[in-house]
Amino acid sequence: MSANAKPLLIFDFDGTLANTIETGIAIYNELAAGYGLRTVTAAEVQELRKLNTRALLDHLEISGLMVVKLGAHIRKLLHQRMDTVDMIRGTREMILSLHS
User: Fold this and answer.
1) Which of 48, 67, 73, 79 has its CA 20 to 30 A from that of 97?
2) Is 19 exposed, middle or buried (0-12, 13-18, 19+ CB in 10 A)?
């Protein structure tokens, strides 16, 4: 490491720093009918989170092509709503502590 180099920490944002799951599910449910999919309940989500990606897509009957389109649409809307997403408790304080 050079004398001018500064230490760097990289965090995964979704689910690590911000609680995006609730917003993501709300967006999925808003878009579901337009993609010919069914909505999911909060109780169902807890079970779906235990599945690997392939099993989840199979359960929701989302094809490989549809997952690309749907994923892009969800990401776009999630980005637009990011100011409504809560940070995970204690994360803000941790980041400020690391910064100082």
Assistant:
1) 79
2) middle
pTM: 0.74
Nearest residue to 86 via CA among 17, 26, 11 = 17
| CA quadruple 57, 26, 35, 13: dihedral sign | negative
> Can you tell me the distance from the alpha carbon of 93 to that of 67, in angstroms, rounded to the nearest whole number?
36
- Please give the average pLDDT of every successive group of 10 residues along the chain, which has 100 residues: 73 77 92 96 91 94 94 94 89 87
In degrees and rounded to multiples of 5, residue 64 shows phi and psi of: -60, -40
Q: 85: closest CA among 39, 12, 30, 26?
A: 26
3-state SS class at 8: coil
Q: Please check whether residue 35 is in contact with residue 74, taking contact to mean a CB–CB distance below 8 angstroms.
A: no
Backbone torsions φ then ψ of 97, nearest 5 degrees: -65, -45
